Amino acid sequence: MSLLAEKTALIVVDVQSAFLHPTYWGPSRSNPAFESNATSIIKSYRLLISGDASSSPHKIIHVAHASLSTSSPLHRSSPGFKFQKFAEPQGDELVIEKSVNSAFIGTNLEEVLRDHFKGSKGTMFLLGLTTDHCVSTTTRMASNLKVCDGLDGENGEVVFIEDATAAWKKSNDGFDAELVHAVNAESLQEFASVRKTAEVLESWKGLLESKA
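^ thats the sequence. predicted structure below, dont judge the formating
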């Protein structure tokens, strides 16, 4: 089944340098393949955008967490606020800053997406950090708000790219990071299509080949 609707959006959530710290967020992290999978998705998606990005049916949006706490590694004044190298925005790719878990709260993301899809059903893809916090919350709200549904009632599709996200073990005595990741990804099946990177890339293959 193709995951490539006439109009799509890729939301890259909080792939910031602060998350490179080995222990600040927890004693261990899930999904060692996160970086390579996310890189593959971002690079491939950019190939779908041809010509003038402002008129493309495919749109990439970068979300950055801007903590209100000056002691947070995600505060704007911290080096950790910067995007990780592989996820740095290019050209005129849109960057949206948030200060809570959901990228829809206190931002214009909903407005941007509704303007992009223009009332037609589409597909939006989500990846980033972390599985159980900001990516999960943003995915749930995208579904609840029906931002990629058609005005005629046709359902769009929210796609959570499970292996292009990662989660942390919360404490030494807490649940394993992979378990945290897996349970949260499974819970999202009520709100989104939970897919793997390989499946998403395969669904884009025909269009990518036509642009080669």
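The chain has a mean pLDDT of 94.
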